[in-house]
Design brief:
The protein is of the alpha+beta class and 113 residues long. It has a 4-stranded antiparallel beta sheet with strand order 2-3-1-4, with helices on one face. The longest helix is centred in the C-terminal third of the chain and has 12 residues. The chain is elongated, with a radius of gyration of 15 Å. The structure holds adenosine-5'-triphosphate and magnesium ion. The site of adenosine-5'-triphosphate has 13 residues, from strand 3 and strand 4.
């Protein structure tokens, strides 16, 4: 199992969610965050309102998936978020050790989706 974390431009969220749904990926956590990449927020101001400390508004997606969904998830996020301009975002792929569905006590691959 993998835990996929992506930081994208807020105005790409709808497109990314559409692409994920096309690939049958529906379970997701979305958070409004502040961040900065390697331009330290400087050359990207035209795309986003600048907050304190060169931070820009971004959206973070977190998706836990079984192995067969890793590539479809990455593809969907990339296709939905890419414009070719700086600040399109980044995807982090983490190993996921365990998932528990609290209501049933199910664990692992069964509990993930
Ligand atoms: N190494 C990192 N650690 C933590 N968060 C990061 C890291 N790199 C990027 N991010 C997050 O991702 C957001 C988007 O990054 P961004 O797309 O600007 O990456 P970049 O490496 O600067 O690439 P680009 O040159 O395309 O802008 C950042 O605002 C930040 O929130
Ligand atoms: Mg950047």
């Amino acid at each position: 199992m993998k835990y996929i974390v992506a930081v994208i431009q807020p105005d790409r969220l709808e497109e990314v969610l559409d692409r994920l749904e096309e690939k049958d990926i529906h379970l997701v956590t979305v958070t409004n965050v502040l961040g900065r990449g390697r331009q330290k927020g400087i050359s990207e101001i035209y795309r986003s309102h600048k907050e304190v400390g060169s931070l820009l508004r971004k959206v973070k997606l977190e998706i836990a998936v079984n192995e067969e969904y890793v590539k479809p998830t990455i593809d969907a996020i990339t296709e939905g978020a890419r414009t070719g301009r700086i600040g399109d975002g980044k995807i982090f792929v983490l190993d996921l050790k365990e998932v528990m569905r609290i209501r049933t006590g199910e664990a692992g691959a069964v509990a993930i989706g």
